[in-house]
Amino acid sequence: MKTICPPEQCTGCALCLTLCPKKCISFKEGKLGHLYPVVNEGDCIDCGLCRKKCPSLSVFEKEKPSKAFATWSKNEQIYSNSSSGGLATQISKCIIEQGGVVYGSAVLPDIVVRHIRVDNIEDISKLQGSKYVQSNIQEALRQIKTDIKRGIPTLFIGTPCQVAAVKNLFKAVPDNLFLIDLICHGIPSLNLLKRYIRKVADCPHYDNVRFREGNQYFLSVYSGGKVVYHKTLRNPRYKEWYINTFFDGYVFRDSCYACHYACPERISDMTIGDFWGLGRKASADMIPAHPKGCSVALPITDKGYNLLQSVSKDLNIYERIVDEAIEGNDQLQHPTILGKRKRLFRLLYPVFGRVSYKIAIIDKYTKYQLKRILGKLK
After folding, report:
1. 32 and 16, same structural domain?
2. Are residues 283 and 199 in the same domain?
3. Average pLDDT in the 211-215 region?
4. What is the 3-state secondary structure (H, E, C) of 287-340?
5. What pTM does this model have?
6. Distance (Å, whole) CA 326 – CA 271
7. Residue 70, domain member (yes or no)
8. Which domain holds residue 48?
9. Is 94 contained in some domain?
């Protein structure tokens, strides 16, 4: 079977499917539900375009940010509806007000998670909130190329490997293309999420799924506009299977454990995410309270810095030390580590399903229960 890149390196970006002139590449599901490209050799003309453009086989110039900012929106509604500080929403609003378009991840009916094109202020809300699952960008890649050719200011927000796919659409990054990458911990598959939802929430149709509000983490499933399943990430947190396999790093793509982009050097115009570790390297006494989260902004290029400055009037914004942001976030230092427990889970899951997760974490859960009992005795 012809492969484009080694499966353990594939990020599932779908750039090969998008560019193939014979449309002879399709996706096949892997053991944890992730999708991998498969080439129909009978139709393939060996043009080599898929391998030439594959981000996993490309070398990208990276640059460490020279500035870091702690920031959150002054708009209370935007701040409340966002995962951390609402920075992505404010930038998206600015781009659209200038006649541009924004591409970001959205949850569509029947729990379809993919990047959509937004060209009006009202629809920005569809992009708000964390999605702890892989988003499909195949259709977005086609649309982005069209928008760039038409001269439309275009903002793409996604994981670093998705940003790499967008960059490889072009020989050089166009002036009207703005790239923001999210600090990514790894990506579970949509198929895994959908299978889990069908087990815990028995409904014919699902409208939406949410994972976070401010600093509270949970899994909420909606049907007919009503919550049909909800569990928060509270102790004992090991009782919510999907959320825990995400946070403990059990169900990511193989490529996530050797991610090229989990390092201080970045490939986008700006990196954003939660500002974990705020105040560890320098005093944060002058920064007001931000109970629903705080974004970190790491502008990499002049384009990224100017983009941040264009919305600074709408933000509470404080310059910080770059190393403070890096040291507070493991994913800005190294990829998720694939330890023995995770390897055991990934070996057992195709055979035993969810039972394998309980086997893999039983020692962690036991330790938690012991601490809980000792705490009560004290």
Report:
1. yes
2. yes
3. 82
4. CCCCCCCCEEEEECCHHHHHHHHHCHHHEEEEEECHHHHHHCCHHHCCCCCCCH
5. 0.93
6. 11
7. yes
8. 7-57
9. yes
Based on the domain organization, do 12 and 48 belong to the same domain? Answer: yes
Q: Quote the tokens at residue 250.
A: 């059990």
Distance CA 364, CA 366 (A): 5
pLDDT in tens, 24-60: 999 999 999 999 999 999 999 999 999 999 999 999 9
Burial of residue 292, with CB atoms counted within 10 A of its CB: 0-12 exposed, 13-18 middle, 19 or more buried: buried
- The whole-number pLDDT of residue 238 equals 60
Q: Tokens 């909606």 correspond to what residue?
A: 222
Closest CA to 293 of 125, 87, 124: 87
User: Can you tell me the distance from the alpha carbon of 103 to that of 314, in angstroms, rounded to the nearest whole number?
Assistant: 21
C-beta of residue 336 within 8 angstroms of C-beta of residue 186 = yes
Q: What are 254-312's pLDDT values in tens digits? A: 999 999 999 999 999 999 999 998 998 888 888 998 888 899 999 999 999 999 999 99
Q: Identity (one letter) of the amino acid at 51?
A: R
Question: Do the domain assignments include residue 348?
Answer: no
Strand 101-108 and strand 112-118: the pairing is antiparallel
Q: pLDDT by residue (tens digit) across 218-235?
A: 999 999 989 999 988 765
Cβ-based neighbour number of residue 224 at 10 Å: 10
12 and 132 part of one domain: no
CA separation for the pair 84, 150 (Å, rounded): 33
